[in-house]
Design goal:
mainly alpha; 0% strand; elongated
C-alpha cells in the first residue's frame, strides 16, 4: 500500500540535526545550492526530483523507497511527474508505477500522457509473451517528441533484440544510444538510462564480445549507481561469471551475493538459476556441489537425461562428459553449442579442455581452434 503521510521535509531536517550537519555542509555534499535547500525546507516549494533524491540518499538512504514514494505521491511539477515514472520503473516499485500511470493517462498535459502511455506499455510488455517482431511492431506506435523519449525508445528497441539473443544487432545499437543519452540534461534520467544500457552492455560484453574487462566495468558502474537490487543482481551475476575461469573464490563470492539479493526480494526462480550456476562453478573447480536439481544431477553423472535441456545446458553436459572421457568430439560439440548460443565467453571452457588433451585427434583440432 502506498503511503503519502510521511513529511519528507521534516524527516530530512531531523536527519540533518541528528547527524550534526548544517545546510551549508549538505549543500557542499550534494552540490545543491543553499538557496535551493532553503526553498525546499523553509518555503515548502517543489525542487527538482534529482535534488530530492540526492538529499535522501545522503541523509536517509535506508529509508529511500519509503521517503521517495511519499514525495512522489505529492509532486505537481510536470517534469518531476515524468521523472518519477522512470524512478518507479527502475526501482521496481510496482504500486507506485501503477498509481503514476493511472494518474498520468488522464493528465491534461500531453507530454505527461505520452510518457504514461509508454510506461503503461512497458508494464504490460513484461507480462505479455511478445515475440521480437510483435514487440517491435508495438514499439513503433510510439513517436518520440523529446531527446529523453527518443533515448528510451532506442533502449527498448535494443532490448527487443537483446532478450531474443540477437546480441549482434543489440550491440549495434549501443553507441547510438550512448550518444543520445549524452544529450540528456536531467541527472536522474541520464543515470537511469545509462544503467538500463549498462545492464545490456555487461551481458553483451561478456557473452558476445568475450571482453571481460568491459563487462566488469559496466557491472561496477551499475553498482555505483545504487539503482536498486534487481540491477545489483545483474552486476554481481556478471562479475561472478566473469571470474569463472580465473578465481573460484571471487566467482563464488559474487554469485553468492547475487543469490542473497534475489532471495531477499523473493525472486525465487532467479535464485534457483543462480544456485544452478554456483553448482556448475563448483563442479568445474572440483569442489563439493551444494545444490542438486534434475539438471545438475545429469551434469555430475548422478542421473540420466530425462528432461528437456536448453542449448546452454546441452553444452555443459557435453563439456563435462568430454572432460571425463577426454573426448575431443564432445568438447568440440560443446564449443559449437555455446557459440551457437552467442556465448563466446563460455565457449572458452571446452577450448581450455581441448588444449589439455594430448592425442593425435586433439592435435588436429588444436590447429583449427587456436
Amino acid at each position: 500500500m502506498l503511503d503519502d503521510k510521511i513529511n519528507i521535509r521534516n524527516y530530512l531536517k531531523e536527519s540533518i540535526l541528528s547527524k550534526g550537519l548544517t545546510q551549508k555542509k549538505v549543500s557542499l555534499e550534494t552540490g545543491i545550492s543553499e538557496g535551493q535547500l532553503s526553498k525546499f525546507f523553509s518555503s515548502g516549494q517543489e525542487i527538482s526530483f534529482s535534488m530530492v533524491l540526492d538529499l535522501v540518499q545522503l541523509l536517509a538512504p535506508e529509508k529511500e523507497i519509503e521517503l521517495m514514494t511519499s514525495y512522489v505521491m505529492n509532486i505537481t511539477r510536470k517534469k518531476n511527474q515524468r521523472i518519477a515514472l522512470e524512478y518507479a520503473h527502475v526501482k521496481r516499485i510496482h504500486d507506485l508505477s501503477r498509481h503514476l500511470i493511472e494518474k498520468g493517462l488522464i493528465d491534461q498535459n500531453e507530454e505527461v500522457r505520452e510518457w504514461s502511455q509508454i510506461y503503461h506499455w512497458q508494464f504490460q510488455a513484461k507480462q505479455t509473451d511478445y515475440n521480437e517482431r510483435e514487440f517491435l511492431s508495438e514499439l513503433k506506435k510510439f513517436k518520440a517528441h523529446s531527446t529523453e523519449m527518443e533515448a528510451l525508445l532506442m533502449i527498448l528497441e535494443m532490448y527487443s533484440f537483446f532478450y531474443n539473443k540477437n546480441l549482434e544487432i543489440a550491440n549495434y545499437y549501443i553507441e547510438g544510444i550512448k550518444e543520445k543519452i549524452s544529450e540528456i540534461s536531467d541527472p536522474f534520467i541520464y543515470k537511469a538510462f545509462m544503467v538500463r544500457l549498462d545492464e545490456a552492455v555487461s551481458h553483451i560484453a561478456l557473452k558476445f564480445k568475450d571482453n571481460v574487462e568491459l563487462a566488469r566495468q559496466a557491472s561496477e558502474r551499475i553498482l555505483v549507481s545504487r539503482m536498486g537490487p534487481t540491477f545489483d543482481s545483474t552486476a554481481y551475476f556478471i562479475l561472478g561469471i566473469s571470474y569463472m575461469m580465473e578465481s573460484y573464490e571471487r566467482a563464488y563470492e559474487y554469485l553468492n551475493h547475487c543469490l542473497s539479493i534475489n532471495e531477499d526480494i523473493e525472486r525465487f526462480n532467479v535464485a534457483d538459476n543462480i544456485k544452478e550456476n554456483i553448482s556448475i562453478l563448483q563442479f568445474w573447480w572440483g569442489k563439493e556441489v551444494d545444490y542438486l536439481n534434475p539438471f545438475i544431477k545429469i551434469l555430475i553423472g548422478e542421473a540420466k537425461t530425462q528432461i528437456k535441456l536448453d542449448k546452454e545446458q546441452q553444452a555443459y553436459v557435453l563439456l563435462f562428459e568430454g572432460i571425463k572421457e577426454k573426448n575431443c568430439v564432445k568438447l568440440l560439440l560443446s564449443m559449437h553449442l555455446f557459440l551457437e548460443n552467442n556465448d563466446v565467453f563460455r565457449a572458452r571452457l571446452p577450448k581450455i579442455e581441448l588444449l589439455k588433451i594430448d592425442s593425435f585427434e586433439s592435435s588436429i583440432l588444436k590447429e583449427v581452434i587456436v
